[in-house]
Amino acid sequence: MATHKINPRINFTVIILFSFILLSLQLMSSATQESSALGELYSWLFLINALGSIVLLGLVIANIITLTQQFKKKEAGSKLTIRMLSFFIILALSPTSIVFYFSMQFLHQGIDSWFNVEIDRAMEDSLELSQASLDQRMRWHLKQTQQFTTILESTSPSMMTMEIEQLRNQSEASEITLFSRPGKIIASSSNNPSDILPNLPDESIWLQLRQNEDYVALTPLHKNELMIRVIINIKAQQPYYLQALYPVPVRIADLADSVEFAFVRYKEMHFLRHSLKLSFTLALSLVLLMSLLAAIWAAFISIRHIIAPVKELVKGTQAVAAGRYDQLVPVTAHDDLGFLVESFNAMTQRIAKAQNESRLAGVEIENQRAYLETILANITAGVISFDAAFNIRTVNQAAYRIFHIPVTHFIGRSLLQLTDSAIELSEPLKLLQRLLEQADDIWEQRIAFLGAKGRQELLCRGTPLFSQEGLRIGAVVVFDDVTDLIQAQKNAAWGEVARRLAHEIKNPLTPIQLSAERLQHKLAAKLDVADANMLQRSTRTIVQQVEAMKEMVDDFSEYAKPSKKQTVIVDLSLLIQEVLALYVLKSGVKFKTHFHSETLLINGDPVSIRQILHNLIKNALEAIESKGTIEIHLHRVQKNDTHFIEIALHDDGPGIKEEHIKEIFEPYVTTKAKGTGLGLTIVKKIIEEHGGAIWVDTRCQKGAGFILQFPAYHVKN
Amino acid sequence: MAFIMLVCIKNNLRQHCLLTVLWVFCMCLSPMSDADDYQAHINKVKISVVDDAYVVSAQITYQLSPEALEALQNGVPLFWTIRIKAEQQVFFLAKTLVEHNLHYQLRYHALLNMYRVNNEETGETFNFSQLANALASISQIKALPVIAQHAVSTPAATTIKIKIVFNLDALPLPLRPFARLNHQWSLSSNWTSWPLTK
């Protein structure tokens, strides 16, 4: 038994692929963390996962297309696969969609909850508070610096440096610098002796100073330090700019920085809110999509593995249904399905064995039946078997030859139904049916009927068939056409009669005739006229009757003597025309001939055939009393693959009475006053000597008709 | 996608759902967008020899898209890298002789209402009350020594290449995938080649 293992490479590939998918999703999830080192790869990971989804989608679509094609082709297992897959998808989709729905809701609501008007306002206010605090400090330092103006305006240029040093020490300024109007440093003082060069204002500040009078601004330094830069205009003899730098206390700077950081962070998050939602939605959707597609693809693979044995079983079942028992289903698993497959294989093997034995037995039976049929077909007796309902079961060829109806067409039907196509057989068939139904034992019956070839006699023997349980299961009827046998017996008997008549009667006739003639010759002169006349009449009557008896005896001799025909090829149409030529001059008789255009030849004795025609025409003329019409048809017919030349002779006389028809060809049967009753008997004898047949045409409505058939002569090429 | 749409609609998230769908469509359509609108341009490049070295001076024009400007105003720092390299053509291959990267960061200081430019190479920080001034401060390359004269064997086959790279990977994480597909974030320039010798 063939056993196939599931390919482990497929499972390994699937596991590897799923591991990659999970790893990729995990990496993307990790990359979403702000602090993650994978942050820079986020876009690429996103792209890889999207491509992975497209690949999975392609795999799923390819599988769906394949499955659809299999379904359209009505391949085994496709319907079950679709049903299982649909069930799996529904099962997988329902919880994931619910989880996705609520995840999205929580996600979006969570992000939205980060932001509201109160927090917005608080953030704005805190920043404004910080700015206000610093503004206040700036204004205070501006005012403080402006107070230096009165002092410096009255200070001589040579004392400026000292004065500035003093002012710096008195104030909180970390550095005070005096610039000339063009921006040249005149004097500077710093609390940090290492600062050689004072902090210089940039171009924009100079530009602002030239437009406005004073300048005050916060300037960030390194490491979150802030410094307030104040520059005022001193209108002394020589105008100056005085720049004072006031450091913002570290605590205040830290607080301001903290507020600013929080504000910027909040603003940034607020700005990124939609992107954040979109990003999470996309990531979540991608995870869902990949998971679903991977699950569906895995479902395809799993279901295909599960269905494989079922598919093979369906194929195997179809093969068994189609009669192929030799097809074994491969065992792909060692589970319950595998056991089922093994059982199926064992079953099909047993069926195959049984079927083979049955086939051999059938062949044997068929051979025997064929042998029996051959025997039955080749025996001369007709055999018809019947079932329990007396419907025809089998029939042999001989039955067709005897009945001249295709009995095989009536298999499965009763005998009575044959009468529809052969009315002349209705009486004998009814008789047979009755015998079949009534007889409980072997029966024998002679049945006569008027067939296509005239009167036929059948010797029927019927045997009812019984089963081993004694139930009647049908019957079989064997019948022989004994017409010729009976006719031969009759002919032999009549031949014997004829010979005896010729011997016993003909011999005394000549002395009687001679004696009568002698009496006439001796006594005629001795008697008076009256007696002489009476003698003459008496002797003439004796002579005539003796002549008649001689003719009759000759006819008997003719009938009884063996045939001495000399056969030649005869063209029947010419022969008929020659015979008719002798009668056409008879007034009051009209001859109608209907000859086929082709030459119709037979192998026969032309003298005998002329005698036949003369006999029949004479009979017809006597029947119509030389006033009427005689029609002669000549054509070719085919019966049982044998060609015959048929002569149909009809007159419009009074016809033949029905009671005479069945014995009209018997010797000494005549309807004429002076007939011997041997004419038609001799005709029939001659025709049968030629291998032909004659019968009364019972179909003709008016007058009498005879059908003559002679075997046609085949011209050999 | 249809499933995601359905869930989003049920979740009253139509806007985001549509955005998600649009994003996917943008993936297909993005190459068709006009990406040149906000690209940086490199103008007036001057290459000269000073103290046996090739020095480069250039003028760069930055153009901030409305979206980039909005991001900047909302505290998102923007990062540029000015890439300058000397390439020598050897047959069909370009051999990089030297490369310099100048990294700049621009961010908005909400407390001081100022724009702060940070040169990440030197650590220097410059504050500007005007955005234009801040951008102008990173728009000029003044006599930057690129490569020593003796290091260039075939000056005729050597070119100076300059490219302004806007660092998308430095953007906040949620913004990155969309910034890659949005032409308003295509702030980088293409490589421009300048021959070492006239």
What does this structure look like?
The complex is a heterodimer of chains A (717) and B (198). Chain A has helices at 8-31, 42-72, 78-114, 117-153, 160-170, 203-211, 250-271, 273-321, 336-378, 397-403, 426-438, 483-523, 529-560, 572-580, 606-624, 658-661, 679-689; strands at residues 175-180, 185-190, 215-220, 226-234, 240-247, 382-386, 392-395, 443-451, 454-466, 472-481, 568-571, 589-595, 601-604, 628-639, 642-651, 693-696, 705-711. By secondary structure, chain A is α+β, with helices and mostly antiparallel strands. Chain A folds into 5 domains: 8-114 and 272-320, no CATH class; 131-263, PAS domain (Beta-Lactamase), CATH 3.30.450.20; 379-481, PAS domain (Beta-Lactamase), CATH 3.30.450; 488-560; 568-711, Heat Shock Protein 90, CATH 3.30.565. In chain A, strands 2-1-5-4-3 form a 5-stranded antiparallel beta sheet, sandwiched between helices. Chain A has a 5-stranded antiparallel beta sheet with strand order 7-6-10-9-8. Chain A has a 5-stranded mixed beta sheet with strand order 12-14-15-17-16. The longest helix of chain A has 49 residues, at 273-321. The model of chain A is unreliable at 1-6 (pLDDT under 50). By secondary structure, chain B is an alpha+beta fold. Chain B has helices at 2-10, 14-29, 66-73, 131-137, 176-181, and strands at residues 41-50, 53-61, 78-90, 93-109, 114-119, 125-128, 140-148, 158-166, 192-195. Chain B has a 6-stranded antiparallel beta sheet with strand order 6-5-4-3-8-9. In chain B, strand 4 and strand 5 form a beta hairpin. Mean pLDDT of chain B is 81; it is low at 1-19 and 28-33. Classes of the chains: A alpha+beta (717), B alpha+beta (198). At the A-B interface, helix 2, helix 3, helix 4, strand 3 and helix 7 of A face helix 1, helix 2, strand 6 and helix 5 of B.
